[in-house]
Amino acid sequence: xxxxxxxxxxxxxxxxxxxxxxxxxxxxxxxxxxxxxxxxxxxxxxxxxxxxxxxxxxxxxxxxxxxxxxxxxxxxxxxxxxxxxxxxxxxx
Amino acid sequence: xxxxxxxxxxxxxxxxxxxxxxxxxxxxxxxxxxxxxxxxxxxxxxxxxxxxxxxxxxxxxxxxxxxxxxxxxxxxxxxxxxxxxxxxxxxxxxxxxxxxxxxxxxxxxxxxxxxxxxxxxxxxxxxxxxxxxxxxxxxxxxxxxxxxxxxxxxxxxxxxxxxxxxxxxxxxxxxxxxxxxxxxxxxxxxxxxxxxxxxxxxxxxxxxxxxxxxxxxxxxxxxxxxxxxxxxxxxxxxxxxxxxxxxxxxxxxxxxxxxxxxxxxxxxxxxxxxxxxxxxxxxxxxxxxxxxxxxxxxxxxxxxxxxxxxxxxxxxxxxxxxxxxxxxxxxxxxxxxxxxxxxxxxxxxxxxxxxxxxxxxxxxxxxxxxxxxxxxxxxxxxxxxxxxxxxxxxxxxxxxxxxxxxxxxxxxxxxxxxxxxxxxxxxxxxxxxxxxxxxxxxxxxxxxxxxxxxxxxxxxxxxxxxxxxxxxxxxxxxxxxxxxxxxxxxxxxxxxxxxxxxxxxxxxxxxxxxxxxxxxxxxxxxxxxxxxxxxxxxxxxxxxxxxxxxxxxxxxxxxxxxxxxxxxxxxxxxxxxxxxxxxxxxxxxxxxxxxxxxxxxxxxxxxxxxxxxxxxxxxxxxxxxxxxxxxxxxxxxxxxxxxxxxxxxxxxxxxxxxxxxxxxxxxxxxxxxxxxxxxxxxxxxxxxxxxxxxxxxx
Lengths: 92, 698
Prior knowledge:
The structure holds 2 protein chains of 2 kinds. Chain A is an alpha+beta fold.
């Protein structure tokens, strides 16, 4: 059981995230509540990612790498830690 | 120059800024340097309708006046500091109409700075006309400055833009007077009167910005007048949020903003394949393999033409001119140097054509996304991939392409390891030697064994580059935060005009940067290899004549033998002999020593030098050289170029930094000799050690 779960978490789910599943059924836009890291926040702000915007994680590069996200009508690549610093309404 | 009015072109990255700049200035532009940073300043002259010319400055793309990288800081510095040499008199703001909402932030900063501004909405041929009209009306009403929808691709409204730029100066006072969009806290400006005597600020907002960035510009970290880092970041966030709120309130007037963005939907569909975790990487690798195949097979034709053309030219000049040292300098020093520069152009131009096409199409940003995680483990950045790929053709443009890596440490590591990627100048050396290591056989009936060995050398280069990067990453302290946070532009069909201009510029920089170094080195080497202490060359020629009489050689063979003897007794030959004890443990003799020295002009000079010294005449090719080397014996009668010696030499060429042009470019890019010298020593030791291991224990 543990092995299966490990396998699912590390390989199968990240893989499905990116490829087979059509995007809208897997994820949906969440609202950004805050960004925990101030320096990162200034960077994301200037790109147009800030509290109040809808953000949608579309896929990830293999093995927990970069995140492919959509905010409004624009696509972005974020690092995993950059994505983690963004707090959305569903995480609370 | 100082009296000429300056217009700064400002906008987000990927806003179509450069296209507008290029179409306005054409080839009438020059690349210079912004002081203190490595970004090039692109300036061009633009003739207005009344005959006056203005200086157009293309600033690096930025999202906000509060910059996140040294590239962006160039713009901030020039706009906030009235004493800056690039301080513009007016601004041409370029924004891509396809996602305008993100691109208005910087515009609101500039409007608050009260510059005379013209807003230029680019790429209007990509969206429907109603949307364009709606935006133009809205922005003109809200911003109170001229808004011109243009397309550089379809050449729409470019003439109107020129006309309006004329008016920018005539009616500057009208263009620059507006109400502030963001009201900062005026209490922050108290006790700053001293600044007024030093700078003539446009308005209080500029002075307020100076409090944010003045510390960085002047380097005066003690002055308590400036905002401290924490306060500065808080104020920035507050200001940016407030500005976005204003911008969002404008957007409500735009009907189709959140519907019908077909190109976004298309881009997402393409990305389902191209950024797929599994297929994405596979597609990238196949694409790179294909590109290099194409480059090597297509570029071979113009390269041979250039080489034989120069051979023909120098033969003719040699026949026409009297036998004098000046004509020798021309035929053996300058012409080979020129040929050594020009011969690389086909490959460099083709590689950059391909890379620029992919970049303009929007694909390279996806590659950065795919590889960032992997490259981070080695202390590199996703953006390093462009440099690493370009390094496969030539390290010089590759090193220059690392400029968009904003993190200093990641950029240094990338530049440091690029010369380890096998460049095209190593190919002739490998071609002449690989037969000694791997005999020509077919594997599985389709691949030839030497082709596989070539691939192996590439992989070895990449492997060593990555290991080196990881080691530096481990020891070099992290000074600043590294971000990816990258906008993925929507896919579009590249504009040929734009692409060709970029390629033209890369090639031009290569010719100017590498060209002068190769030419100078080539002349020095000519001197070293054709002069010696007085009388010694005469003696060598005499000896050669005696020897040829004994052996009964033909006239041609005698001439070749004389050339070989002259080279042996020249300064270069003496240096080769001087180095011999040092390189003997690697299996090399003084003849290879000479070739190692002459290779500093460019590695492929190896073939020419070895041909001369083995009495083949200077214009021999790799295959002839290979045959000659195969018959060479050591003093004890064993074959000289056995497997071990050849492999040792190949590895030496793979790792050592025998390229003065690379060192010169590294010096320019890092603004100092420290890094190039460390790099030279590191790669030299690496090459020496690996060759030693191979020859002694292989």
